[in-house]
Amino acid sequence: MMPFVNLPAQRNAYRNQLEKAEKAVLDSGCYIGGDQVRLLEQELDSYCGAAHAVTCGSGTQAIEIALSVLGLEPGDQVIVPDFTFIAPAECVQKLGGIPVFADIDPRTLQIDPESVEKLVGPKTKGIIAVNLFGQCAPYKKLREIADRHGLWILEDSAQAFGATCTAGDSSSEGKACRACTFGDISITSFYPTKPLGCYGDGGAIFTANPEYAEKARLLANHGSKERYRHIEIGTNGRLDALQAAVLRVKLQHLDQELEQRQQNAKVYDQFFAGLPGFTPQVITDGNTSTYAQYTLLVENRAEFTSRLEKAGIPYCIHYPLPLHEQPCFKKLAANDGAGFASNATTEKVCGQVISLPFCAFTDTQSVVEKISKTF
Ligand SMILES: Cc1ncc(COP(=O)(O)O)c(C=O)c1O
Protein backbone atom coordinates (compact mmCIF):
# COMPACT_ATOMS: atom_id res chain seq x y z
CA MET A 1 0.00 0.00 0.00
CA MET A 2 1.23 3.53 -0.74
CA PRO A 3 2.20 5.56 2.36
CA PHE A 4 -0.31 8.07 3.77
CA VAL A 5 2.57 10.56 4.16
CA ASN A 6 5.68 9.73 2.12
CA LEU A 7 8.44 10.57 4.62
CA PRO A 8 10.99 8.13 3.09
CA ALA A 9 10.71 9.98 -0.26
CA GLN A 10 11.34 13.29 1.51
CA ARG A 11 14.40 11.84 3.28
CA ASN A 12 15.75 10.53 -0.02
CA ALA A 13 15.35 13.96 -1.60
CA TYR A 14 17.45 15.73 1.08
CA ARG A 15 19.57 12.76 2.17
CA ASN A 16 23.02 14.33 1.69
CA GLN A 17 22.14 17.51 3.54
CA LEU A 18 20.34 15.63 6.32
CA GLU A 19 23.09 13.08 6.88
CA LYS A 20 25.74 15.80 6.99
CA ALA A 21 23.73 17.82 9.53
CA GLU A 22 22.93 14.75 11.66
CA LYS A 23 26.56 13.59 11.68
CA ALA A 24 27.77 17.06 12.70
CA VAL A 25 25.50 16.98 15.76
CA LEU A 26 26.37 13.39 16.69
CA ASP A 27 30.09 14.17 16.44
CA SER A 28 29.79 17.47 18.35
CA GLY A 29 29.01 16.07 21.81
CA CYS A 30 26.30 18.76 22.20
CA TYR A 31 22.91 17.06 22.09
CA ILE A 32 20.62 19.39 24.04
CA GLY A 33 20.33 23.12 23.30
CA GLY A 34 23.41 24.79 21.82
CA ASP A 35 23.94 26.40 18.42
CA GLN A 36 21.55 24.23 16.43
CA VAL A 37 18.59 25.12 18.64
CA ARG A 38 19.56 28.79 18.86
CA LEU A 39 19.98 29.09 15.08
CA LEU A 40 16.72 27.23 14.42
CA GLU A 41 14.85 29.69 16.66
CA GLN A 42 16.30 32.63 14.71
CA GLU A 43 15.41 31.01 11.38
CA LEU A 44 11.86 30.19 12.50
CA ASP A 45 11.44 33.82 13.61
CA SER A 46 12.57 35.25 10.34
CA TYR A 47 10.55 32.71 8.31
CA CYS A 48 7.20 33.45 9.89
CA GLY A 49 7.78 37.02 11.05
CA ALA A 50 7.19 36.42 14.75
CA ALA A 51 9.40 38.46 17.03
CA HIS A 52 10.27 35.59 19.37
CA ALA A 53 10.40 31.81 18.89
CA VAL A 54 10.99 29.42 21.80
CA THR A 55 11.38 25.75 20.87
CA CYS A 56 10.18 22.96 23.14
CA GLY A 57 9.46 19.24 23.30
CA SER A 58 6.17 18.95 21.36
CA GLY A 59 3.15 20.89 20.14
CA THR A 60 1.16 19.70 23.15
CA GLN A 61 3.84 20.93 25.52
CA ALA A 62 3.90 24.25 23.64
CA ILE A 63 0.14 24.67 24.31
CA GLU A 64 0.59 23.85 28.00
CA ILE A 65 3.43 26.33 28.37
CA ALA A 66 1.50 28.99 26.40
CA LEU A 67 -1.56 28.57 28.63
CA SER A 68 0.65 28.98 31.72
CA VAL A 69 2.24 32.08 30.21
CA LEU A 70 -1.24 33.51 29.61
CA GLY A 71 -1.98 32.93 33.30
CA LEU A 72 -4.69 30.27 33.05
CA GLU A 73 -6.09 29.55 36.53
CA PRO A 74 -8.21 26.60 37.72
CA GLY A 75 -11.88 27.23 36.87
CA ASP A 76 -11.12 29.57 33.95
CA GLN A 77 -13.05 28.80 30.78
CA VAL A 78 -11.36 28.65 27.37
CA ILE A 79 -13.31 28.36 24.12
CA VAL A 80 -11.88 25.65 21.85
CA PRO A 81 -13.12 24.12 18.58
CA ASP A 82 -15.23 20.98 19.03
CA PHE A 83 -13.73 19.58 15.82
CA THR A 84 -9.95 19.16 16.05
CA PHE A 85 -7.20 17.08 17.64
CA ILE A 86 -7.61 16.75 21.41
CA ALA A 87 -4.49 18.70 22.49
CA PRO A 88 -6.01 22.20 22.96
CA ALA A 89 -8.92 20.98 25.12
CA GLU A 90 -6.70 18.43 26.89
CA CYS A 91 -4.15 21.08 27.93
CA VAL A 92 -6.86 23.44 29.21
CA GLN A 93 -8.32 20.70 31.39
CA LYS A 94 -4.92 19.44 32.54
CA LEU A 95 -4.20 22.90 33.99
CA GLY A 96 -7.56 22.95 35.79
CA GLY A 97 -9.35 25.09 33.22
CA ILE A 98 -12.64 24.25 31.56
CA PRO A 99 -12.75 23.73 27.79
CA VAL A 100 -15.92 25.09 26.22
CA PHE A 101 -16.59 23.60 22.80
CA ALA A 102 -17.51 25.84 19.85
CA ASP A 103 -19.11 24.62 16.63
CA ILE A 104 -17.47 24.95 13.21
CA ASP A 105 -18.16 26.45 9.80
CA PRO A 106 -19.55 23.67 7.54
CA ARG A 107 -17.45 24.79 4.53
CA THR A 108 -14.04 25.64 6.00
CA LEU A 109 -14.41 23.27 8.99
CA GLN A 110 -12.81 26.04 11.09
CA ILE A 111 -14.07 27.33 14.45
CA ASP A 112 -17.22 29.42 13.85
CA PRO A 113 -16.95 32.96 15.31
CA GLU A 114 -20.75 33.12 15.79
CA SER A 115 -20.64 30.03 17.96
CA VAL A 116 -17.65 31.48 19.87
CA GLU A 117 -19.53 34.72 20.57
CA LYS A 118 -22.49 32.80 22.04
CA LEU A 119 -20.22 30.90 24.44
CA VAL A 120 -18.45 33.91 25.98
CA GLY A 121 -19.38 34.22 29.65
CA PRO A 122 -18.03 35.73 32.87
CA LYS A 123 -15.46 32.94 33.37
CA THR A 124 -14.15 33.02 29.77
CA LYS A 125 -10.48 34.01 29.61
CA GLY A 126 -9.50 33.18 26.05
CA ILE A 127 -10.00 31.39 22.74
CA ILE A 128 -7.80 28.68 21.27
CA ALA A 129 -8.09 28.95 17.49
CA VAL A 130 -6.80 25.97 15.52
CA ASN A 131 -5.50 26.42 11.95
CA LEU A 132 -7.26 23.24 10.94
CA PHE A 133 -5.70 20.99 8.28
CA GLY A 134 -3.30 23.84 7.37
CA GLN A 135 -5.59 26.85 6.80
CA CYS A 136 -5.62 29.82 9.18
CA ALA A 137 -8.68 30.23 11.40
CA PRO A 138 -10.90 33.33 10.83
CA TYR A 139 -8.69 35.64 12.92
CA LYS A 140 -10.23 38.95 11.89
CA LYS A 141 -13.61 38.00 13.39
CA LEU A 142 -12.05 36.16 16.32
CA ARG A 143 -9.90 39.17 17.16
CA GLU A 144 -12.95 41.46 17.14
CA ILE A 145 -14.69 39.15 19.61
CA ALA A 146 -11.57 38.79 21.77
CA ASP A 147 -11.03 42.56 21.90
CA ARG A 148 -14.68 43.27 22.74
CA HIS A 149 -14.60 40.84 25.67
CA GLY A 150 -11.01 41.30 26.85
CA LEU A 151 -9.92 37.75 25.90
CA TRP A 152 -6.61 36.43 24.67
CA ILE A 153 -6.15 34.28 21.55
CA LEU A 154 -3.86 31.26 21.54
CA GLU A 155 -3.19 30.29 17.90
CA ASP A 156 -2.72 26.53 17.53
CA SER A 157 -0.82 26.27 14.28
CA ALA A 158 0.39 22.70 14.83
CA GLN A 159 -0.86 21.85 11.33
CA ALA A 160 -0.09 25.11 9.57
CA PHE A 161 3.49 26.33 9.93
CA GLY A 162 4.07 28.19 6.63
CA ALA A 163 0.39 28.97 5.85
CA THR A 164 -0.45 32.58 4.94
CA CYS A 165 -3.50 34.74 5.48
CA THR A 166 -4.25 38.26 4.27
CA ALA A 167 -7.13 38.91 6.64
CA GLY A 168 -5.61 38.13 9.99
CA ASP A 169 -6.47 41.35 11.75
CA SER A 170 -7.06 45.01 11.04
CA SER A 171 -3.36 45.82 11.45
CA SER A 172 -2.31 43.51 8.59
CA GLU A 173 -3.89 45.94 6.05
CA GLY A 174 -4.50 43.21 3.52
CA LYS A 175 -0.91 41.97 3.33
CA ALA A 176 -0.23 38.26 3.65
CA CYS A 177 1.01 37.30 7.10
CA ARG A 178 2.32 33.91 8.06
CA ALA A 179 0.66 31.55 10.51
CA CYS A 180 2.11 31.76 14.05
CA THR A 181 1.69 35.56 14.10
CA PHE A 182 -2.07 35.80 14.73
CA GLY A 183 -2.28 34.82 18.38
CA ASP A 184 -1.25 36.76 21.45
CA ILE A 185 0.79 33.63 21.65
CA SER A 186 1.01 30.95 18.94
CA ILE A 187 2.34 27.42 18.76
CA THR A 188 3.35 24.82 16.23
CA SER A 189 4.24 21.13 16.21
CA PHE A 190 7.18 19.44 14.52
CA TYR A 191 5.65 15.94 14.73
CA PRO A 192 7.18 13.98 11.81
CA THR A 193 4.14 14.14 9.50
CA LYS A 194 3.51 17.85 10.03
CA PRO A 195 4.30 20.27 7.14
CA LEU A 196 7.60 21.03 8.91
CA GLY A 197 8.40 17.85 10.81
CA CYS A 198 11.44 16.42 12.58
CA TYR A 199 12.34 12.79 13.36
CA GLY A 200 10.70 12.62 16.77
CA ASP A 201 8.67 15.07 18.83
CA GLY A 202 9.21 18.82 18.79
CA GLY A 203 7.31 22.07 19.02
CA ALA A 204 7.66 25.84 19.28
CA ILE A 205 5.98 28.86 20.85
CA PHE A 206 5.82 32.22 19.05
CA THR A 207 4.92 35.66 20.31
CA ALA A 208 5.47 39.36 19.65
CA ASN A 209 5.38 40.01 23.40
CA PRO A 210 8.89 39.93 24.94
CA GLU A 211 7.53 39.24 28.45
CA TYR A 212 5.56 36.23 27.20
CA ALA A 213 8.66 34.99 25.36
CA GLU A 214 10.80 35.31 28.47
CA LYS A 215 8.23 33.48 30.60
CA ALA A 216 7.85 30.71 27.99
CA ARG A 217 11.62 30.21 27.92
CA LEU A 218 11.71 30.12 31.71
CA LEU A 219 8.88 27.57 31.98
CA ALA A 220 10.45 25.38 29.27
CA ASN A 221 13.66 25.25 31.34
CA HIS A 222 12.39 24.11 34.77
CA GLY A 223 11.52 27.71 35.69
CA SER A 224 15.20 28.55 35.66
CA LYS A 225 17.30 31.30 34.09
CA GLU A 226 20.34 30.69 36.21
CA ARG A 227 21.64 27.17 36.79
CA TYR A 228 20.01 25.45 39.82
CA ARG A 229 17.96 28.50 40.79
CA HIS A 230 14.26 27.96 40.01
CA ILE A 231 11.91 30.95 40.03
CA GLU A 232 8.81 29.10 38.79
CA ILE A 233 7.55 25.53 38.56
CA GLY A 234 8.40 24.71 34.97
CA THR A 235 9.15 21.57 33.00
CA ASN A 236 11.71 19.85 30.80
CA GLY A 237 10.64 21.56 27.59
CA ARG A 238 13.72 21.00 25.48
CA LEU A 239 14.12 20.34 21.78
CA ASP A 240 17.08 18.08 20.97
CA ALA A 241 19.96 19.47 18.92
CA LEU A 242 19.51 16.57 16.48
CA GLN A 243 15.88 17.52 15.83
CA ALA A 244 16.87 21.18 15.45
CA ALA A 245 19.51 20.26 12.86
CA VAL A 246 16.97 18.19 10.89
CA LEU A 247 14.43 21.03 11.04
CA ARG A 248 17.02 23.56 9.81
CA VAL A 249 17.58 21.43 6.70
CA LYS A 250 13.88 20.90 6.07
CA LEU A 251 13.07 24.59 6.61
CA GLN A 252 15.25 25.41 3.59
CA HIS A 253 12.92 23.31 1.44
CA LEU A 254 9.63 24.32 3.04
CA ASP A 255 8.54 26.96 0.50
CA GLN A 256 9.17 24.63 -2.40
CA GLU A 257 7.27 21.83 -0.64
CA LEU A 258 4.35 24.14 0.11
CA GLU A 259 4.22 25.10 -3.57
CA GLN A 260 4.19 21.40 -4.53
CA ARG A 261 1.46 20.76 -1.94
CA GLN A 262 -0.71 23.42 -3.63
CA GLN A 263 -0.25 21.69 -6.97
CA ASN A 264 -0.97 18.25 -5.54
CA ALA A 265 -4.12 19.56 -3.85
CA LYS A 266 -5.31 21.04 -7.17
CA VAL A 267 -5.28 17.55 -8.71
CA TYR A 268 -7.62 16.29 -5.97
CA ASP A 269 -9.76 19.47 -6.15
CA GLN A 270 -10.31 19.08 -9.90
CA PHE A 271 -11.17 15.40 -9.57
CA PHE A 272 -13.69 15.84 -6.75
CA ALA A 273 -15.27 18.93 -8.36
CA GLY A 274 -16.75 16.56 -10.94
CA LEU A 275 -18.07 14.01 -8.44
CA PRO A 276 -21.43 14.65 -6.76
CA GLY A 277 -21.46 13.89 -3.01
CA PHE A 278 -17.79 14.90 -2.46
CA THR A 279 -16.89 18.32 -1.00
CA PRO A 280 -13.28 19.21 -0.16
CA GLN A 281 -12.56 21.59 2.75
CA VAL A 282 -12.99 25.11 1.35
CA ILE A 283 -9.87 27.29 1.43
CA THR A 284 -11.19 30.86 1.62
CA ASP A 285 -9.86 33.77 -0.46
CA GLY A 286 -6.77 35.33 1.06
CA ASN A 287 -5.56 32.04 2.57
CA THR A 288 -2.90 29.59 1.47
CA SER A 289 -3.11 26.21 3.17
CA THR A 290 -0.22 23.92 4.02
CA TYR A 291 -2.61 21.00 3.45
CA ALA A 292 -1.33 19.23 6.54
CA GLN A 293 -4.28 17.06 5.59
CA TYR A 294 -6.27 16.94 2.38
CA THR A 295 -9.70 16.43 3.88
CA LEU A 296 -13.11 16.24 2.27
CA LEU A 297 -16.71 15.57 3.20
CA VAL A 298 -18.27 12.50 1.61
CA GLU A 299 -22.01 11.89 1.75
CA ASN A 300 -21.64 8.11 1.72
CA ARG A 301 -18.33 7.60 3.53
CA ALA A 302 -18.73 3.86 4.12
CA GLU A 303 -19.15 3.22 0.40
CA PHE A 304 -16.12 5.41 -0.42
CA THR A 305 -13.85 3.76 2.16
CA SER A 306 -14.62 0.34 0.71
CA ARG A 307 -13.56 1.66 -2.72
CA LEU A 308 -10.32 3.02 -1.22
CA GLU A 309 -9.61 -0.27 0.52
CA LYS A 310 -10.14 -2.21 -2.72
CA ALA A 311 -7.83 0.21 -4.56
CA GLY A 312 -5.12 -0.06 -1.84
CA ILE A 313 -5.33 3.65 -0.93
CA PRO A 314 -4.78 4.49 2.75
CA TYR A 315 -7.05 7.03 4.44
CA CYS A 316 -7.61 8.57 7.89
CA ILE A 317 -10.66 9.95 9.64
CA HIS A 318 -9.77 13.35 11.09
CA TYR A 319 -11.80 13.34 13.39
CA PRO A 320 -14.41 10.68 14.16
CA LEU A 321 -15.91 12.25 17.34
CA PRO A 322 -16.78 15.78 18.47
CA LEU A 323 -14.35 16.53 21.30
CA HIS A 324 -17.16 17.17 23.77
CA GLU A 325 -18.22 13.52 23.31
CA GLN A 326 -14.77 12.11 24.15
CA PRO A 327 -14.91 9.84 27.21
CA CYS A 328 -12.18 11.86 28.98
CA PHE A 329 -14.49 14.91 29.16
CA LYS A 330 -17.55 13.04 30.48
CA LYS A 331 -16.83 13.85 34.13
CA LEU A 332 -16.33 17.51 33.33
CA ALA A 333 -19.58 17.55 31.33
CA ALA A 334 -21.43 16.09 34.34
CA ASN A 335 -19.96 18.68 36.74
CA ASP A 336 -20.08 21.70 34.48
CA GLY A 337 -22.56 21.71 31.61
CA ALA A 338 -21.10 24.81 29.92
CA GLY A 339 -19.89 24.14 26.42
CA PHE A 340 -21.15 20.55 26.31
CA ALA A 341 -24.29 21.21 24.30
CA SER A 342 -24.36 19.36 21.00
CA ASN A 343 -22.81 21.13 18.03
CA ALA A 344 -24.87 20.19 14.98
CA THR A 345 -22.27 20.98 12.30
CA THR A 346 -19.43 19.22 14.12
CA GLU A 347 -21.59 16.14 14.60
CA LYS A 348 -22.53 15.98 10.91
CA VAL A 349 -18.95 16.61 9.76
CA CYS A 350 -17.52 13.86 12.02
CA GLY A 351 -19.72 11.38 10.13
CA GLN A 352 -18.54 12.56 6.68
CA VAL A 353 -14.86 13.57 6.84
CA ILE A 354 -12.05 11.60 5.31
CA SER A 355 -8.40 12.51 4.63
CA LEU A 356 -6.49 11.16 1.62
CA PRO A 357 -2.75 10.41 1.22
CA PHE A 358 -0.98 13.73 1.02
CA CYS A 359 2.40 15.47 1.15
CA ALA A 360 4.76 17.17 -1.29
CA PHE A 361 5.93 13.71 -2.42
CA THR A 362 2.48 12.15 -2.99
CA ASP A 363 1.57 11.38 -6.58
CA THR A 364 -2.04 12.59 -6.26
CA GLN A 365 -2.59 11.97 -10.00
CA SER A 366 -2.01 8.26 -9.48
CA VAL A 367 -4.34 8.29 -6.43
CA VAL A 368 -7.20 9.80 -8.48
CA GLU A 369 -6.54 7.35 -11.32
CA LYS A 370 -6.83 4.45 -8.88
CA ILE A 371 -10.03 5.88 -7.41
CA SER A 372 -11.47 6.47 -10.93
CA LYS A 373 -11.01 2.79 -11.76
CA THR A 374 -13.33 1.82 -8.87
CA PHE A 375 -16.29 3.71 -10.44
C1 LIG B 1 -4.26 20.89 16.09
C2 LIG B 1 -3.17 20.22 16.88
N1 LIG B 1 -2.77 20.76 18.04
C3 LIG B 1 -1.79 20.21 18.76
C4 LIG B 1 -1.17 19.06 18.36
C5 LIG B 1 -0.14 18.45 19.24
O1 LIG B 1 1.13 18.40 18.67
P1 LIG B 1 2.20 17.29 19.17
O2 LIG B 1 1.80 16.00 18.57
O3 LIG B 1 3.51 17.80 18.64
O4 LIG B 1 2.16 17.28 20.64
C6 LIG B 1 -1.54 18.45 17.16
C7 LIG B 1 -0.90 17.21 16.71
O5 LIG B 1 -1.40 16.49 15.89
C8 LIG B 1 -2.58 19.04 16.39
O6 LIG B 1 -2.98 18.51 15.24
User: What's the Cα radius of gyration?
Assistant: 21 Å
Largest sheet: 7 strands, mixed
Distance between the termini: 20 Å
At CATH level 2, the architecture of the largest domain is 3-Layer(aba) Sandwich
Helix and strand content put the structural class at: alpha/beta
CATH topology annotation of the largest domain: Aspartate Aminotransferase, domain 2
Strand content: 15-25%
Q: CATH H level of the largest domain: which superfamily?
A: Type I PLP-dependent aspartate aminotransferase-like (Major domain)
Order of helices and strands: HHHEHEHEHEHEEEEEHEEHEEEHHHEH
Q: How many distinct domains? A: 2
Q: What is the mean pLDDT?
A: 96
The small molecules bound here are: pyridoxal-5'-phosphate
Q: Secondary structure elements and their pairing?
A:
Blueprint: H1 7-13, H2 15-28, H3 35-48, E1 52-56, H4 59-69, E2 77-81, H5 87-94, E3 98-102, H6 113-119, E4 124-130, H7 139-149, E5 152-156, E6 164-165, E7 177-178, E8 185-189, E9 203-207, H8 210-219, E10 224-226, E11 229-230, H9 241-273, E12 278-280, E13 287-288, E14 294-298, H10 301-311, H11 330-335, H12 344-350, E15 353-356, H13 364-373
Parallel strand pairs: 2-3, 2-4, 4-5, 5-8
Antiparallel strand pairs: 1-9, 6-7, 6-13, 8-9, 10-11, 12-14, 14-15
Helix pairs in contact: 2-9, 3-9, 4-5, 4-8
This protein binds pyridoxal-5'-phosphate.
Pyridoxal-5'-phosphate (PLP) binds next to helix 4.
